Amino acid sequence: MKSKVRKYPVITFFALSVLISWAGWVPYAASKAGFLNLNIPSEIIWLAEFGPSLSAIIITALIYGKTNTISLLKRLLIWKTSIKWYLFAIVVTPILILASIGIDILFFNTTYDFSLLSQWDTNFINRTEAFTPSMGLITQLVSFMHTGTFATGLVFLVLALTNGGLSEEIGWRGFALNKFQDKPYNFLVSSLFVALLWAFWHTGTLFWQTVFTSTFSEGISFAAVYLFQYLLLVIPLSVLYTFLYNATNGSILLSIILHAFYNISISIFATALPNFPMIILVILLWIFAILLTIILWKNSKYNKTYRNETNVASN
């Protein structure tokens, strides 16, 4: 068993990631669709989001041992890097979003009611409150957020850093990206491989509820379209993550920050603005990713195999 895991670490990592996450998402979605007569707490689906990171830690511990598991986790603490990378992680998504809206206004004469953005706190509270039933945690968080805007912002930030950032990045960048770059594949090929894993894993409860409440043919069609659309989004995003990860000498922390502020920015704008130009944003992401690839293709700092103790131990 251990020898097979060592021989196929990425496949095993991905299979375990899917198992952990879908074990929470699928039963919850089935209960919401009326296929299971169970009241599964919504907190379960939040825990299920930690599939990639938990899988990376488990697989690393299983085949590389305690020392290399600690080494992997230490990449969460790589914070001594240029301030420009923190700025990149925080503002790249808001800049691209604002550029998308600007293009939509300038070239397509779309009008936006920007006053709706002021309702970000109410929107976030309502979305969080919609997770039912709760074993208590979500209920307490909602009660806390009702105390004021600061409380809502604090919960928003913490959840963005943990559910989405911490829950995934130890796996996608800390483990999978390292493995692909250790093959060695260049940063573009490595990014594409990670994007494929990311898209296949990233279903969630709404995906499964739609599948469960559709006919077989409709469910297959929906799943295929969903996967294709999500790949269009995560392929350029994966290039950006790889660029940042290599630029910061393998900082999982910076990847978490980028992931968190992407989620925060998309959540605020896409929820508040009914005509949010997602297609334009995806096009801009592709343009940005292609330009980065062209500019950095021969730069060894970015287009390189990235080896850490976890990779070396496998040789």
Description:
By secondary structure, the protein is an all-alpha fold. It has one domain (2-313). 76% of the residues lie in helices and 0% in strands. It is built from 15 helices and no strands. It has helices at 2-7, 9-32, 43-48, 51-64, 66-74, 83-108, 120-129, 137-145, 149-181, 187-201, 204-212, 216-247, 252-272, 278-296, 309-313. Helix 6 (83-108) runs parallel beside helix 13 and helix 9 crosses helix 13 (252-272). The longest helix is centred in the middle third of the chain and has 33 residues, at 149-181. The protein is globular. 34% of the residues are buried. The model is unreliable at 308-315 (pLDDT under 50).
Concise overview:
By secondary structure, the chain is mainly α.
